[in-house]
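In this supplementary section we document a worked example of the pipeline. Step one takes a protein sequence of length 320 as its only input; no multiple sequence alignment statistics are reported here. Step two produces a three-dimensional model, which step three serialises into structure tokens for compact storage. The input and output of this example are shown verbatim.
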Amino acid sequence: MAKYTAKIDCSMEQLIPPFLKQGDKIGIAATARWITPTQLERARSLFSSQGWELVIADNVFEQDYQLAGDDASRARCIQSLLDDPEIRAIVIARGGYGTVRVVDKLDFSNWQRHPSWICGYSDITVLLSHLVNMGVASIHSSMPVSFDDCTEEALETFCKALKGELNEISFETQSMFEGLISGVLVGGNLSVLYSLLGSRSYPRQENTILFLEDVDEMVYHIDRMMMGLSRAGVLSGVKAVLVGGLTQMKDNTREYGFHMDNPFGGNALEMIQRVAREHQIPVIHGFPAGHMNDNRAFYIGRKAELSIERHKALLSWKWC
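The serialised model returned by step three reads:
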């Protein structure tokens, strides 16, 4: 059996799971909704091309209405992957809703002795944020259910992240801020983060870069959730807000099926900018991640540097 050694990020004492090599095993879990065998085929071919073997949790194709089995089944199946020291990464099959109903049923004590990469986004923000507070890095990434629609860059960054070859992501931004910001990169789906307020899974740390994305929300919902974060005091340690996709946003207008035009006033990005401005937090938007085809993978729970100059931005990580 190959010997693996987790790394410590010397700048912040975060545990970095071992990166994947050929012959390693990836577990596919379903903590929220189920998928079909056909929806898993792209993941099989992608990971096989990297020389990785898939281990499919028993409940992935199980259907309990929208969920991949009941809460006990979903928890038991991901627990089996967490407890297996040969599993080097656990990729969640799809999001939706349901992860928050299993996270408190999981025992991470054995897993922390041989940590694997936990990967996903959207509803999986629950797990990624929970791990930040445990001091373990994870990967915000696309999930198998959407691999067929992903750009090459999205899948390439995912494989690079798993192999430890992802060092930076460049993107265009219209932010007026220029400079260099460093901090622990945390966050994910705004709606899910908002639902974690007050729990032990909310990633409350000092000196953070807060990544936010969301999908299919009313503009005033974005304002309400940002106000919730503000009033809860969790923005006090945020050095910058990094905004990804704000897709399929809606307003109270005829365009979205309402009987009259009564817009809230402003778009979703402006809601984030307004609250961040009150805390004197710069907002850098245009990051290619979220509910979009070009959903680039990146590390959560690691110290990152964000450099912005002349509407160009670079997010990078440094290894010890």
